[in-house]
Write a structure and sequence with these properties.
- The structure is a single chain.
- The protein is an all-alpha fold.
- The termini are far apart.
- It contains 5 helices and no strands.
- The chain is 56% helix and 0% strand.
- It has a single domain, classed as Cytochrome Bc1 Complex, Chain D, domain 2.
- The mean pLDDT is 87.
- Heme C binds next to helix 4.
């Protein structure tokens, strides 16, 4: 009887695990490196609100990549009522900012 229980629980666990894993946004390694290097991850997560909005939520705003780059340099706190203002991140080179922007926008396709 006990063995049966353990087997049932093990089956449930195996079924539940891939489903949970799919809900999490996996950050590609090159992007994760940039987000770490520029400290974006201190305030942002791909799929959850931290101090700043989740990147999946930024993706829902349907900005162009160029608009996101410009918001990284000149944030507009009015776009995110209820959040503290983000400080301008002018230390991010444009080509890196563009990579991050393209990745943020790529999240919209998977989550809409
Ligand atoms: C100190 C915390 C903090 C850091 C570090 C930070 N952010 Fe933010 N970010 C915020 C907050 C808070 C908001 C929402 C308020 C705002 O836009 O000012 C935000 C908003 C944004 C938005 C949405 C802009 C809009 O108007 O819709 C983008 C895109 C963004 N951040 C990207 C980045 C990137 C990329 C980095 C790293 C280079 C970064 N952030 C670093 C806190 C931060």
């Amino acid at each position: 009887m006990k063995a049966m229980m353990i087997l049932t629980l093990a089956c449930l666990w195996f079924m539940a695990t891939p489903a949970l894993a799919q809900q999490q946004v996996k950050i590609p390694e090159d992007i994760s490196k940039l987000l770490t290097q520029y400290a974006c991850l201190a305030c942002h997560k791909a799929d959850a609100k931290v101090i700043g909005p989740a990147y999946v939520d930024v993706a829902k705003k349907k900005y162009t990549n160029a608009q996101i780059v410009s918001l990284i340099y000149n944030p507009k706190p009015a776009n995110w009522p209820g959040y503290p203002p983000m400080s301008p991140m002018k230390n991010v080179p444009e080509k890196d900012a563009l990579k991050i922007a393209a990745w943020i926008n790529s999240l919209a396709k998977k989550h809409s």
